Each structure stands twice: as C-alpha cells, then as structure tokens.
Amino acid sequence: MMRVVLPLCLLLASMFARGSEAAVSCNAVQADLYPCLAYVVQGGNIPQSCCRGIRMLKQQAKSASDRQVVCRCIKSAVGRVSYSPTYLKNAATLPGKCGVKLPYKIDPSTNCNSIK
C-alpha cells in the first residue's frame, strides 16, 4: 500500500518544496508529508502534523523553478505506480482543508513547466 500512497503524497509536494539547489530534498519532502498518508488512504480527520508539513513546505518554496524541479521528481515517482481516484481526491483536498491556498490543483496531469 505504501508503494501506492507515498507517490501521491509526493505529488502534494510539487507545489511546495524546493528544488535541487534548495535546502529541501525529496527525502525531506517525503518526511514532511508522511503524516498525510492516513488521510490520503482513509479520509477522516487530517492530522495536524500533516498540515504543519504542508505549511512548512509551502513557506520554503521560494521560486517557480524550485517547485518545477520537485514536481518533475514527484511525477516520475507517481508514474511508476498505480493509484486510485479516491486517493487522488483525498490528496487534492489536503491544501484547502489545511488552510493552504495553492495556485493550481494537485493532479498527476499537472504540467510542471506551467507552475509559477
């Protein structure tokens, strides 16, 4: 199940995390979003640690280039596994439910080059 869900959580990071020159690595993004897994898989209440991780990653994203690099990394991970529409729906609702406003949707079809 982790092979299916972790890439979805990585997708969440596409708009938050910093790229290869940044202080945040893909491993750090995974660690920050790990508390979100239960919600992505089961729904229900979102852990506060999940929302803290999302807010922290968004604060660290300083440029479009940073977000684009991480988006590409995440899309690559998502492309290697299958995922369910329910998981994607739950992942897509996380930012709003955590009070984080994003300029685009969480979706595996996101065009990383268009992220500003």
TrEMBL record:
- Any one Pfam family here would be Tryp_alpha_amyl
InterPro entries documented for this protein = Bifun_inhib/LTP/seed_sf, Bifunc_inhib/LTP/seed_store, Plant_nsLTP
Signal sequence coordinates: 1-22
| Molecular-function GO terms, alphabetical | lipid binding
PROSITE patterns found in the cross-reference section: PLANT_LTP (PS00597)
Among the record's GO biological process terms, what is one?
lipid transport
Q: Which UniProt keywords apply?
A: Disulfide bond, Lipid-binding, Signal, Transport
Domain Bifunctional inhibitor/plant lipid transfer protein/seed storage helical: from-to ranges: 26-112
Q: Which domain of life is it from?
A: Eukaryota
Family of this protein: Belongs to the plant LTP family.
State the function annotated in the UniProt record.
Plant non-specific lipid-transfer proteins transfer phospholipids as well as galactolipids across membranes. May play a role in wax or cutin deposition in the cell walls of expanding epidermal cells and certain secretory tissues.
Fetch the PANTHER family from UniProt.
NON-SPECIFIC LIPID-TRANSFER PROTEIN 2-RELATED (PTHR33076)
**Name of the protein this chain belongs to:** Non-specific lipid-transfer protein
